[in-house]
Design a protein that fits this description.
CATH topology of the largest domain: Four Helix Bundle (Hemerythrin (Met), subunit A)
Strand content: under 5%
CATH class of the largest domain: Mainly Alpha
CATH architecture of the largest domain: Up-down Bundle
Largest sheet: 2 strands, antiparallel
Distance between the termini: 54 Å
Shape: globular
Helix content: over 70%
CATH superfamily of the largest domain: GntR ligand-binding domain-like
Strand order of the largest sheet: 1-2
Order of helices and strands: HHHEEHHHHH
């Protein structure tokens, strides 16, 4: 059996550092020269390891700027490989998506209520207010903040599987499917956030897991109703 290449070993070491929180989501890694000195490796080896991390969705290389940890490290766009196939239309896939999320994210609210720190609950409230403001101005930033809200909920469960699963479900559908319908559903999406995200945060601040669970279920059911209101399937 051949030995694992040094660049792969280095990539695995860096991956562990990222996934264990040494470098937080959104944080820029030290520059190539500095990081190679810290790790005691050549810049050539570090460059190869960084390319491997980028292929695994663990870093985002921005040419001329630097290397950053993405908001959801290790989660690439459409990781489940979902396409409009097998006789299912895009709206039907979206309804399936909402129904699976209703089960998973609804139950996750019980964990958030029990485990979230006060700082995490404050961050959820901040994201809610940011969404409400962006709903009136910039729909691209609104959609990104909406996604950040749900990912923040996942992290606030303090459950390792949930912190990976919910962002994966979002990435599997978000870019290829959801954005295409936003212009038609903009008002409905905004109203859904205004009512149901606010209710989720309100119940979580009270440590009311059951209430937050029901608010999340209402959020997903409203998404399904909104789809049916403009599409025939």
């Amino acid at each position: 059996m051949s030995a694992q290449p040094m660049s792969e070993l280095l990539a695995d070491k860096l991956a562990g550092m990222i996934l264990e929180g040494k470098y937080a989501p959104g944080e820029q890694l030290p520059n190539e020269r500095e990081l190679s000195v810290q790790l005691g490796v050549s810049r050539t080896m570090l460059r190869e390891a960084t390319k491997q991390l980028a292929a695994r969705g663990l870093v985002d290389i921005r040419r001329g700027v630097g290397t950053f940890v993405p908001e959801n490290p290790g989660v690439v766009d459409n990781p489940l490989g979902i396409r409009a196939e097998g006789g299912k239309s895009v709206p039907e896939i979206l309804e399936d998506w909402y129904r699976v999320r209703m089960i998973i994210e609804g139950e996750a609210m019980e964990m958030v209520a029990a485990n979230a720190s006060a700082e995490e609950l404050d961050e959820l409230e901040r994201l809610l207010h940011a969404e409400l403001e962006l709903a009136r101005t910039d729909y691209e930033d609104f959609m990104e903040t909406d996604r950040s809200f749900h990912c923040a909920l996942a992290h606030a469960t303090h459950n390792l599987i949930m912190t990976r699963l919910i962002p994966t479900l979002h990435a599997a559908i978000y870019y290829d499917f959801v954005r295409g319908y936003y212009p038609q559903l903009r008002r409905a999406y905004n109203d859904n956030v205004d009512v149901n995200h606010a209710a989720i945060v309100r119940h979580l601040k009270l440590r009311d897991g059951r209430g937050a669970n029901l608010a999340m279920r209402c959020h997903m059911l409203q998404g399904i109703r909104d789809l049916h209101s403009i599409l025939k399937f």
